# Entry
Amino acid sequence: MSRRVCASLLHRAARCTLTLSHSTSPLQYSHFVGAPRYRPPPAVRWNYSSWGPCRSDQWGLTGEESGSWSQSKRLRSTRQDVDFMLSSVQINGFLRSNEQSVSVSEFDGRGLCAVRKFESNQLAANTPNEDRRTAATCLQSKGMLFGVFDGHGGWACAQAVSERLLLYAAVAMMSKQRLEELEKCMEHGGAVPPILQWYKHHADFNYRECASLYIDHLRVFWQELLDSEEHGEGMSPPDALEWSFKRLDADISLEAQVPLCNDLMKSTAIQVAFSGCTACVAHISTDRIHVANSGDSRAVLGVLEEDGSWSALPLSLDHNTQNQAEVERIKAQHPPSERNTVVTDDRLLGVLMPLRGFGDVRFKWSLELQQSILASLESGVDLDSLNLYQYTPPNYLTPPYLDVAPEVTHHKLRPQDRFLILGTDGLWDELGNEEAVRLVGEHLSGIHLQAPVSPSERQMKLGQMHKLLLKRQTRASPSLDTNAATHLIRHALGTGEYGELSQERLATMLTLPEDLARMYRDDITATVVYLNSDLARPLHS
# Structure
């Protein structure tokens, strides 16, 4: 991005904000025009400052965790002078503050592990970040679980789902014998064996006020599994993933409707249910990957071809209006008279971009139920403080319009399968599948393949040849990051007009004031899981 373009961008954005500042505050404006995934009504007042999260230790069913939550310090205003030029040290500080890198033991006591290590990172556009990520090893069954979650209408739903979904999936895969042992420990107040070993970033936090509620509903889930005669050795990974998505969403809906022990717990349950999130979760066993996706986050496998090049194999499909089969699926669930109103302006009912997801009960409950629940809160709870409002999507005639049912895919691991990328849509808005896989693959191997100059390229004019040379030079440049997820985010935001990595463009994107950042980019979460390809090689005598 040239200096002229950067200056023009700031000038237009600042002028736009000043024009609107007579009628609405910058915070209101940014959440109205700067939240393309979820389009609230014009009269909505968005207020996050009075509903801040607090960090707590993990409750008894989890592994280790450390750290505390801290809100982003990148708080600016368009009414202040903004310096777009950052030094390389400052840029690296922005990009690397949420890095995570974890090496995994090849043998964990229960079997060989197909995961060698994983690297993850996040970069916020919203304040606070509405994305979440999670990773854990199953201690009472086999395999590892990874997830990315993209919140909208606030971060509450993504936070709750990131804490709970992997536990539901792990419980569903446990054998009846292990579930019985777990229930006995709960009944007699004994030490509860951990279900998952979590891999937490030091800035992660949990809902302390809802820990007991979450445990109780997880326990009800495993009690129902114990009552089932068919459970036996536990569900298969694809069944466990599908059931966990559906059951958790049902619990989120139920928790918002039933009486709870205190106002804080009730307020949290309401906020979780009325906000929403997408989810993309991968279970990796010794020889297979299963991916469950609901929404427009994505899982892409990086494959090393025989000639040394890299190719991308998508393991999920986006659930948005770019997926015509998904649009037709939703239209078929409603009367023909609604065919032209169910999806308008590339959004569900003209409001919501992802066509599947957790929470978002405004697109699932009847109007009577919504009004009843919100009315029951009005006497004791400030709806503004919970980011709630009385609003009905247009043409809301035959709910539900949204469901969480995931699309589950499986892939048998091969020697050429080297890594898996999980990313929220903020990453895929900026990078295609093939480009993301190439970036990680070349980062992994340190080899940058260049295709021979084609006959048509030999006929290029001087300007076109200069552009081609810049692209080739960029591909041959050494990586600035040891973390592959950071490498992806740097290129997603910093790639210039000719494919070169532009520090000026990157600095501009990182220093946009908070009331403008969401207009130009989304929250980005990326997790790169490196696979042990040796396990997929055939054994020779």
Observations:
- DSSP finds 17 helices and 15 strands in the chain.
